[in-house]
Design a protein that fits this description.
alpha+beta, three-stranded antiparallel β-sheet, 3 strands, 11% strand, elongated
């Protein structure tokens, strides 16, 4: 069951290690804009090798949805406001990247993946497709010997 949250208000999300971010909802418009930014940033056909493209997409989404944060400061411990460069630096920290991807991006991508889990096509090769070949009705005669 999909639970629709009709609120468009940003929500605080705990990323661990004393850090939390105030993030706007990850809508289709945000996802499309992030993908567009990614295509513009990547050379050639817009495709980068797997992991680098995934990281770039997550960072593009983060720059669009993070409105505020707690637990982020400079080297002297003074609080810093979020900026695109600081958001990228935050997500360069593996545990915080993992938490952001898991708790904000992952659920949105999971819904997109569900559309790929549709029933197998009756045409073509598929485990769920109906068998086309009919079983033999009689046994073949053995080859003559000698």
């Amino acid at each position: 069951m999909i639970r629709l949250d009709l609120s468009r208000d940003p929500k605080w999300v705990d990323l661990g290690h004393g850090v939390r971010v105030l993030a706007a909802p990850l809508t289709s418009a945000v996802m499309m804009a992030a993908r567009s930014d990614l295509r513009e940033a990547l050379p050639g056909d817009g495709g980068a090798a797997g992991h680098a493209a995934a990281v770039a997409l997550v960072k593009a989404i983060a720059r669009m949805v993070i409105r505020d944060w707690d637990g982020i400061g400079d080297t002297d411990g003074n609080p810093l406001p979020p900026t695109p460069e600081r958001i990228d630096a935050l997500l360069d920290l593996p545990p915080l990247y993992d938490a952001f991807e898991r708790d904000l991006v992952g659920p949105a991508l999971l819904l997109a993946d569900e559309k790929n889990a549709s029933a197998p096509s009756p045409n073509g090769i598929s485990a769920g497709a109906a068998a086309i070949a009919k079983p033999a009705r009689r046994r073949a005669k053995p080859a003559p010997t000698g």
